[in-house]
What we know:
Layout (H helix, E strand, L loop, with lengths): L2 E4 L12 H9 L2 E4 L2 H10 L6 E3 L5 H13 L3 E5 L12 H9 L4 E3 L6 H8 L6 E5 L7 H8 L5 E6 L4 H12 L4 E6 L7 E6 H10 L6 E5 L5 H10 L1
Parallel strand pairs: 1-4, 1-5, 2-3, 2-4, 6-7
Antiparallel strand pairs: 7-10, 8-9, 8-10
Helix pairs in contact: 3-4, 7-8
Amino acid sequence: MSKLYIVPTPIGNLEDMTFRAIKVLKEVDLILAEDTRTSGKLLKHFEISTHMHSHHMHNEHKTVENLIKRLQAGESIALISDAGTPAISDPGFLLTRACVENNIEVDCLPGATAFVPALVNSGLPNDRFVFEGFLPEKKGRQTRYLALAEENRTMIFYVSPHKLVKTLAEFVHYFGAERPVSVSRELSKLHEETIRGTAAEVLQYFEIKPPKGEIVAVVGGKVSEKESKKDRERE
Length: 235
């Protein structure tokens, strides 16, 4: 039976690959990979010989129609990204939407994604949160910050290492120097690290120690004056 499988892959530690993910990747007719060179190393490690095609942000608009035809013809296809769960700040949404529109079954396997451990590690409230992914590069960046300045839920951002110091400085400017921030980098890898503190403190840390690796920044939501007063009374 034709089906699109969304298959998460490890964000660093290969031991996070699930038995089910390996089974699916071995059994499908085709694997769509964000970067076939990166995914080729993963497939080789788990002795998966299924044929791969490239499917990334630069070609996904052009390939969706043909992939839908292949699924309608009875093939089963798995979609993976370089790391983590496809469609979370990675290609995947367009193909998933097209499958839904064409009544093709979609099965998303549970598995690795960077923002969940970063959120839990932060120690910030995680009963309600908003995932922002990567902020706009230039156009719309300030507008997004101004909207988020009033957000009272915990906020999660993906940040490139060379833009972390700039982003933390923007957190100080738009959210305030005392806003709680947690930065996790290299999750599940050998040099995993989580730095917590105020926006100003975390900025100062990374100004001295330039960051490397994959980064997730978690920011506490705006606390109302009423809630702030209650916290002070408890202290």
